[in-house]
Amino acid sequence: MRFTNLFAPTTKEAPKDATLPSHKYLVRAGFVSQYGSGLYNFLPMGKIVLDKIRDIVKEEMDSSGACEIQMGVVTPAELWKQSGRYNAFGKELLRLHDRKNNDFVLGPTHEEVVVDIVRNRINSYKQLPLHLYQITTKFRDEGRPRYGLLRGREFIMKDGYSFHKDEESMKVEFDKMETTYRKIFTRLGLDFRAVDADSGAIGGSGSKEFMVLADNGEDDIIVCNNCEYAANIEAAKRAKKTTTVEAPEADAAKFHTPNCITIDDVAEFFKIDSFYTTKAVIKKAIYEDREEVVLFIVRGNDNLQETKAQNACGALELVDATEQEVKDAGLVAGSCGPIGLPEDINFYIDSELKDEKNLICGANEHEYHFVGAGMFNFKDSRYIDLVEVSAGDKCACCGGELGVTKGIEVGHIFQLGQKYAAAMEATFLDENGKSQAFYMGCYGVGVSRLVAVMIEASHDERGCIWNRQTTPFELDIIVSNVKNEEELEYGEKLYKTFKDSGIEVLLDDRKDRFGPKIKDFELIGFPYALILGKGLKEGNVELVDRKTLEKTTISVDDVESKIKELLA
Ligand code: ATP
Ligand code: MG
């Protein structure tokens, strides 16, 4: 490609709302253009990178035995009603209707459509397993589209769906996909971890996320310093918290606790360790058809993990309850506890508190707390994992110390079980001639998000630093001054030679000065530049390594062999 033919509108201006390097550089280097909130066009170089990532994903998916298809984006709402997700998916689902007032959705994910493809076409266990995937556009009306391609509303995903006769076969495919994803992210040159994950609105049982470790990640990942354990904080487990500090003793006595609002106030008042206090977090749970105030109880020196809390009560969303809502529910903020609550209040207790005694908890009376309370007399379904694991907690697998690190989710694999097939009556005949709902798995890769992730993983203060696997061009031949015939002619010759030998080469043949050309090289971030300038008179050119910015002088006699060797 010649730069004079390329549309690469580079600029010094970063978007006003851009805080992350990938967002700034993708726009500044002319890879993408924004045309609405969370909406981006891929310009020529962005498209090359996107296709390279897509090709790697496709190659690995194909070699795993999956079949590529392409489903439509506009989906009849009827399918989503059959699965029960039309209402349950919440605000991210863009609902629309046609001229005849039929309801549709823009596909945010395609379980419903793929089940509809397979149902009545696969009828026997003999036709299973089957894995169908696509690499296409998704639309999610994200509450906060931001960070450029990392969280768009329209984005490109590889989504795969597998169908099985039983759980065992589903698990085999799940493991195969973990291996496939490891190959994909390794080929992309990324530093990643596969972590235990929450399944979110997609549902199902086991799931794993693939996280690229990056300071700017939106996700918190818990990692063990001693074993392989790693999990998204939304799903992280820990060994039960203990203490050597002595417990306060009293027999479920009620104490007046003036001005004790926070956990620290209570601990200070009784001169005890906050380990022995309980914290009651009041939330408003929003369901499809109602809202209600719900209470979550964790140890005083723990925090509530919101995703775990949301899963516990099965709400579409959890929000803070207003003062009035708390009052109306009959709760006393600052003095809430599980004992003596109004009858109709739903509450959950962290499982680590089960059967604990000698606790101090709110007495549900203004400025009163119970001392020596025990968590025995509640039904089992009230106890559920609610705590946010934090740095310094102990690993449940090996006892090692847990730490927190940031990650960007680039892939997510799920074991769905029979959830969708059962809801949508997609069945096959098993070995015994019995009708059964398919077991399914689903597997996503954020293909357009990966374009940004490549830059988050590799950039400096001057711009992007692409690796060879994903760069739009491997070599940028910069003709310093196109008016100098010798320089231009030599540039043309090298360009042809390298192109013929299969190197992805760009010839910067623009009439610009040298300054903007080298600046563009640094901003766009091709791995190498070859500068043809004044040195040519002495028979020399200069090779620049974008990563180190090191310059090496090469004689024109060696340049072809050196470059071919470098980019072999
Ligand atoms: P997140 O927690 O980041 O919103 P998710 O759990 O909603 O992700 P999945 O439904 O598992 O995501 O989708 C599969 C993949 O699609 C994700 O791993 C991610 O890489 C990508 N993805 C999801 N939402 C977006 C988005 N808004 N913009 C770009 N890529 C996205
Ligand atoms: Mg999401």
How would you explain this protein's 3D organization?
There is one protein chain. The protein has 568 residues and is an alpha+beta fold. It is 25% helix and 29% strand. The strands form eight sheets. Strands 3, 7, 8, 9, 10, 11, 12, 21 and 24 form a nine-stranded mixed beta sheet that branches. Adenosine-5'-triphosphate is lined by residues 109, 140, 142, 151-152, 155, 157, 200, 202, 409-412, 444, 446, 448-449.
Itemize the secondary structure elements and their pairings.
Blueprint: H1 21-28, E1 32-36, E2 39-42, H2 44-64, E3 67-68, E4 74-76, H3 77-83, H4 85-88, E5 95-97, E6 103-106, H5 111-118, E7 130-139, E8 154-164, H6 167-187, E9 192-196, E10 207-213, E11 219-224, E12 230-232, E13 253-256, H7 263-270, E14 278-286, E15 291-299, H8 306-313, E16 317-320, H9 323-328, E17 346-350, E18 359-362, E19 368-373, E20 383-384, E21 402-417, H10 419-423, E22 427-429, E23 435-437, E24 439-446, H11 447-457, E25 459-460, E26 463-464, E27 475-479, H12 485-500, E28 505-508, H13 514-524, E29 528-532, E30 540-545, E31 551-555, H14 559-566
Parallel strand pairs: 3-7, 15-17, 17-20, 27-28, 27-29
Antiparallel strand pairs: 1-2, 4-6, 5-6, 7-8, 8-24, 9-10, 10-21, 11-12, 11-21, 13-19, 14-15, 14-16, 18-19, 21-24, 22-23, 25-26, 29-30, 30-31
The site of adenosine-5'-triphosphate has 17 residues, from strand 8, strand 21, strand 24 and helix 11.
